[in-house]
What does this fold into?
Amino acid sequence: MSRLAPLNLDEQPQEVRDEYDHLARARPPRPDGTFGGPFDTWLRSPEMSRALRRFGGLVWERTSLDRGIVELAICVAGRYWQANVEWRAHEPRAVEYGIPQSVMDDVLAGRAPTTDREDILATVEISEALLEGKSLSQALYDRGLAVFGERGMVELAATVGFYTQVAFTLRMFEVEPDGERIFPRPPEA
It folds into this structure.
């Protein structure tokens, strides 16, 4: 479901068709020609789509962070912004990449995870602090630095920020998964 109808490519400028073709090479479209997630909305602004996909690929595939930690940070942002598509797409990947299901259950419920893994605890605490608009205490910053290093801290902030942008796109255009929502529709402005 989305506020936007699928694009009729025959009616689109060449720039949109080119971006669609480029995206289709990397991510095959569904039978109805859509891609899901934020991609169908991004196509409305082809230059932005290219930039966001490129940056998203960096965040998703080429950071120094453990893949499970990236997925966990994405899920923390998805839960915070109540982005159903984001949570549904990345929660199974977090588990696939080594984040215990019990941790994901805690994150979904808004509880501090019960784990002795400092990388998980630091990811959740740093991500939540950023999302809540708080400054990181020196102690939390130092913990993150000890776990991830400076490069990892930059990449963690970029991951939370990028997936906040994804969540905003999903929420603005009411991009929702098929079936039951995990998060209810937020109040309207």
User: Anything to note?
Assistant: The first helix runs from residue 14 to 26. The chain has two domains: 12-60, 64-172.
